[in-house]
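Fold it.
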Amino acid sequence: QLQLVESGGGLVQPGKSLKLSCTASGFTLDYYAIGWFRQAPGKEREGVFCINNSGDDTNYDVSVKGRFAISRDNAKNTVYLQMNSLNPEDTAVYYCATPHRRNCPWDLADFDSWGQGTQVTVSS
């Protein structure tokens, strides 16, 4: 069974950091682009970052540029989202997904396999 599983979410104070993990089971991440998305209460799901199979990243949300970074460790079959300088507007459920192709698409509808999400809450 092909699965993506997110972990690392939680409650954090403004200004602090969290590192999310997206681990694949049932398939090898090496060949595929992986994207991170988030959905805040009452809002649509939005793209955050994507990393292609070569390790190049694509930013979908300018509000996280310079604060978030995406990386991958193919040996661990895992993609990470390092989130720094968190603020309450970053509160959301964070999801990872793959379009089952090497490069990051600009059409986010191309992502067709999703994890179950992990909650990130930024609050004092």
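The CA atoms of residues 72 and 79 lie 4 Å apart.
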